[in-house]
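Much of what follows relies on a compact textual record of a protein's fold. Think of the row as the fold of the chain written in a discrete alphabet. An example makes this concrete, so a full record is given next.


***
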Amino acid sequence: MFIEQAYSKKFDIIKYLPIPIIFMLLMLLNYVAVVALNLDVDKLIQDEITRKGTNRVFFETMLPLAIFLIMLLVWVKFVNKQSIRSLTTAREKVDWKRIFFSFGLWSAVTILLTVVAYYAEPANYEINFKPVPFAILAAIAVVLVPMQTSFEEYLFRGYLMQGIGIATRSKLIPLITTSVMFGVMHIANPEIEKLGYILLLYYIGTGFFLGIMTLMDDGMELALGFHAANNLVTALLITSDWTALQTDSVLKDYSIPDAGFDILLPVFIVYPILLFIFSKKYKWSGWREKLTGKLILKDTNNETGYSHD
């Protein structure tokens, strides 16, 4: 049982607050600055790329989140006195096969959908491949993108899911809370400026997808693999002038984005199909219990119990 693992007699919700508060405040201040100063985020990114180059801007974007990952894991280990394994999974050890399966599955789907889109409307795309810049991008991305995505997963699907769950004795409350927070975290992205706040439904829907996957599988392995594949393959494969991460990727997309299609396809079609595949492969059962159950936490010997309505 994934959430309960963070509980002990010395559990203190106050210890959970500093890193999430600092991170969310930074995100909020970034958004307030964009709105209050009426900043053109697209232009700012393009100016930075002109001055520094695409790969340097990409590196500087990824690095702070990689540092946050290290800070979070150190905090969990030495302040909360919790093992990284118990933050990651309810299994006796981290299941790397699950991570690689999820990573491989979503990488294959992403590449397939991109190839189909390219051949369906080739006029919307340009071959952007340059060997040297791409090699530098690949070296940066392979190291920093999994750290960036792992930070987001450990923060939302691990740290906050467990902390909020224990504080509220619920699984549904942390699922809803972390999914909404995950969506709101992206509010300052240039994609939101381009497509409107309706795109937050995509990010929140993705948060629910990753949260459901974590609770049903009693671990973050599938979410870690999916998120890493989503950002890494996208960074290497395709870019555009209006996204948060602009890279020296293989393709450049000049198409006009469609918020309705971009939201409906993954959230209401692709994600349910993926959940079905994972549920069959890993024999998930007890959906109501695992997603809406209440926690009963015992105070002795770090034992935990579980019940549901």
Residues 3-307 form one domain.
